């Protein structure tokens, strides 16, 4: 349990962690996982997992048009925009 | 008495008699917030105490007391159109919601006034209201102590009379535990009873919005307004909403109340246990029948919760990526830097910890051992409740193992902090409704008692809670 | 050494609902950037998805049309990864309980290419890289577009089979009305998985995934190229890397995609914001019965009912619009062969040249019959009908008769008028007349042609020939 690849998990989560944070989380996450390991005691053979507390099914919406958002206003408060687009640092195209 | 000190129902009665105007009520609350929220006690129930702009809609005045004209404070994770919403996080700074949550629509349509945003643990991850980017909220009953969390701001505001009533959200106890710590009433409705549309998700299969109020009657009155099916939320239930006010003032004679032995095992604090047992005696004296029940898998609740909640949260929080709204590290040169720095700088320690935990639980090679296993144990926890509710109408437990603890007391040990939700978490896992209300004082600090009910049986919980509250 | 290829195809089809899969934004092609977006498809905090019933129904119909089984339990899952065109940081897709399972697409050889599964998912937005030197731009109009991903088993043996599979799949999807299948609008996108093995071995080679295939032709060419590349590598003793390659249409080559910094770990888990779905057996049966005629059945019926050749039947059933047009037309005039000829000839030529669907032209069955009748009644020559009348009818939606009159194309069968043109032709070509007289029979045909020219194509050609012979013989 103590050998969680925290750098890999942080990368998957797109979280920059300082070395100190990595050390700090390493211990804490290991502790929490050890605590959670108690679940191993429970026999869950033939038990269905519960993803929803309610047994709802077949919830749909009608195929009707709802007006779209006025993007110009929204883009004013966006971190970076150009014209009608959101803007991000250049992505190097894969087939370049 | 100042208007801010009234309950919602009392204010509504005053409107019926034309005893005051909506403006009087709003002014009284604004003044209370401005003067009390940032006084020497530093309660800090609101994310900001300045320039509060009430939102309301023209609505026909009702012929009997209702939410018409009643100001309600909103936890900072429920979207109000045109207002900044942060979830207590730096990463959302600057984000103004372009839409209203369904509960806000319902409140406005009922004529209520939406006023002020209450502080919370960052993204509702916490039990003490200490992790907000705005700083901690303090408990009005003892400012050295936490108000509980994550809806600590809502509970503190109601307890401090800087709010008439408030909305909170509850994923593992985030309405009930702060209500208990602050000595007010908090209801987590059945999963699916209240629409989650517009509630910034923490753990989608656990989250519910609910009222935090000064008394049980106010609580029922607000749930009346916000409950019901919503076409925008697939997980909301198409089950009729009764008039919860109809359940008040009724006798609980013959009501069967389960006392789960696992909740009264060793570990419950001495004084809390004493007060809870006295409360159970009170229920008996009101004619209720106390029945021993067992919830054998309840001891695994916290374990299950700390897999399910962080897993869902790790995915729910992926949208905070600095691309479209909120905080971005503008110095980032590459896409990866933009993601990692914006999220690394934008999220606080507890949020990062849970994202890491959740990502790990879902990652390749661990899914079956953690997430899938937890979802299966969740089924067993739910089955326990189904079995118990075949025998009883409601279940009684403490809300929290102890009264409010001191600021900083548990911040260094996350596991200990997590255990303060030990009595509340199972209701979220099973999806059942649960209410917390004050039942006594331990060294001047409020203790909360929790009643859990059958799915969609909030009415009987209000009946029980109201009878308990009214009995001297 | 001979290498045996194994090919599997993954096709993403855009379903033709009015609105997106999980929100009410309209699906409009070529709208201004970020104009078809709302809090839900922008992935704003607090929003929730709700499944579009029409999308589900279209997907169900597609599954049945492909001979698939509708799953007993259907649920959605989150596929987690970060990219700026994916607003929520996860794609709502289906992992272990897809909408449909199994099924097959039949080829002309009677081979049935089995399908693995068909699942519903949301499309991502678009990234634009060429408008700014230091940034990429994000347009989320496409985010949330409903897709059905159809995954074949690796049972396709050649580039030609892949092409036919796609053509047949497209025809099926169009015929049951689940998608417009417009390649240019990206309604149909395809990835190919290709591996090769030595003919002496049963062991499948490593799989290479090819992306960026923008047309069926590109799919075929890319697979051809990839088989060649892999075969050469294996024969040279190299090991094929399991990788994703991109097809470069201009250079007609595949290229290695720059490897990502990390292996993908999508962390699939059940989407808690959507509930599970299931379809009752009766509903499935009703949907199956309500399926429109599939291309293969239609082709066979066209051959039997209208006496068409296999070739014509294939052409006329490839597109549902064409098949419907044909059937409406033959209701008005039962000369099946003539209608078929008009459609596969001038109509197809016009559609091809103008890159249009038949629905986008002004031609109607009644208008086409108008032309056909003029020819049948000998009021106009076939040539004039095709060259002078048809273009105006299809482009302007005018009546054939009206065009004929305006252009003065009415065929002339009147003896005296024709004799006049014949005399003109004879007088203008004394040498040819001489040739005829000296026994060169074909010279008469030249004079007939000249007569037709003088009449501006209006003379009845049969009548001209008859009268020409008379005139030449009298001349003698």
Give an overview in words.
The complex is a heterotrimer of chains A (96), B (472) and C (476). Chain A is of the alpha+beta class. In chain A, 32% of the residues lie in helices and 9% in strands. Chain A is built from 3 helices and 3 strands; from the N terminus they run ααβαββ. Chain A has a two-stranded antiparallel ribbon. The radius of gyration of chain A is 23 Å and the shape is flat. By secondary structure, chain B is of the alpha/beta class. Helices cover 35% and strands 13% of the residues of chain B. Chain B contains 14 helices and 10 strands. Chain B starts with 7 loop residues before the first helix and ends with a helix. The mean pLDDT of chain B is 96. Chain C is of the alpha+beta class. In chain C, the strands form 3 sheets. In chain C, strands 1, 3, 6, 7, 8, 11, 12, 13, 14 and 15 form a 10-stranded mixed sheet that branches. A 3-stranded antiparallel sheet of chain C has the order 5-4-16, with no helix packed on it. In chain C, strand 13, helix 3 and strand 14 form a beta-alpha-beta unit. In chain C, helix 12 packs across helix 15 and helix 14 packs across helix 15. Chain C starts with a strand and ends with a helix. The relative contact order of chain C is 0.09. Classes of the chains: A alpha+beta (96), B alpha/beta (472), C alpha+beta (476). Chains in contact: A-B, A-C, B-C. At the A-B interface, helix 1, helix 2 and strand 3 of A face helix 8, helix 9, helix 10, helix 11 and helix 12 of B. Strand 1 of chain A pairs parallel with strand 2 of chain C.
Task: Annotate the secondary structure layout.
The complex is a heterotrimer of chains A (96), B (472) and C (476).
Chain A lengths: L5 H7 L6 H18 L23 E2 L9 H6 L4 E2 L2 E5 L7
Antiparallel strand pairs in A: 2-3
Chain B lengths: L7 H9 L5 H15 L34 E5 L26 H8 L3 E6 L33 H8 L5 E6 L5 H7 L2 E4 L19 E6 L2 H11 L29 E5 L9 H16 L3 E5 L7 H16 L18 H12 L2 H14 L5 H24 L2 E5 L15 H5 L6 H6 L3 E9 L2 E9 L4 H13 L2
Helix pairs in contact in B: 4-5, 6-14, 8-10, 8-11
Chain C lengths: L2 E12 L36 E2 H13 L3 E2 L6 E4 L9 E4 L6 E2 L2 E3 L5 E11 L3 E3 L6 E5 L6 E7 L6 H17 L12 E11 L9 E6 L2 H20 L7 E6 L4 E4 L12 E2 L10 H9 L5 H12 L3 H8 L2 H13 L3 H19 L10 H12 L5 H15 L3 H8 L7 H14 L1 H8 L5 H12 L6 H15 L1
Parallel strand pairs in C: 13-14
Antiparallel strand pairs in C: 1-11, 1-12, 3-6, 4-5, 4-16, 6-8, 7-8, 8-11, 9-10, 12-13, 14-15
Helix pairs in contact in C: 2-3, 5-6, 7-8, 7-9, 9-10, 10-11, 12-14, 12-15, 13-14, 14-15
